[in-house]
Amino acid sequence: YFLGRGKQNRSVVDWKAxxxxxxxxxxxxxxxxxxxxxxxxxxxxxxxxxQVSFPEITSNxxxxxxxxxxxxxxxxxxxxxxxxxxxxxxxxxxWLAGRYKAGATSRILNGTLHRVMPSCVSILSMISMAxxxxxxxxxxxxxxxxxxxxxxxxxxxxxxxxxxxxFMTGSNTNSNVVFxxxxxQTAELLGISxxxxxxxxxxxxxxxxxxxxxxxVIGTSTADMSGREGEVLRQMFGYTMFLIAxxxxxxxxxxxxxx
Length: 259
Fold this sequence. Notes:
Elements: H1 15-21, H2 23-37, H3 39-45, E1 49-50, E2 53-54, E3 57-58, E4 64-65, E5 68-69, E6 73-74, H4 79-96, H5 104-136, H6 138-150, H7 154-169, H8 172-190, H9 194-210, H10 213-222, H11 229-258
Antiparallel strand pairs: 1-6, 2-5, 3-4
């Protein structure tokens, strides 16, 4: 701006258009803060909730999952509903401003469904697999095997497990769903800090996620580098390994501090 003050043909920033484009984010902040900090509104949104009671389950190998109640799911105060409120309010703002042409609603809905369905199927599949593994005793069996085989070396390998999960599934979230319970149970069996191990899991997952093939494909296609995925992975390999190794050392140090 200062370098161009003396020029006659400098571009003019349309701050009104920029602020209008940011309206959706501003509405999101207002909706979330209102739902969290305005007590009457929070109570009204969370008044209706769903909670399911699950019976005790015993597998054929004798693994017992105790009877328990699920977490309460607020129908109108759930995070997903807050996003829906934000979307509707943002749509209303742009519609009143005349920014939407005829047929915009159907295009928005179709585009949204087209984009979210693959992610929904992936997340539901991952969660289903993780729950089946936990309730059938598979997670417990793997955790006992890791604790017996690795022993004190487990903290060093914990972030690598998280990174492997993210590399395979494409996201840190999926890695945590698949391996989070495993890491927690192994830490409990070894008598070490669960918080440190779970931190190593999600940190390793975050690093491994950056090098996941699915994300590399998306990145190269966005940057008009399709066909160079192998080159990108090779460039990232060294940095990824170094960062995960560093997290391994920090995890061991964290475990030593908590003993």
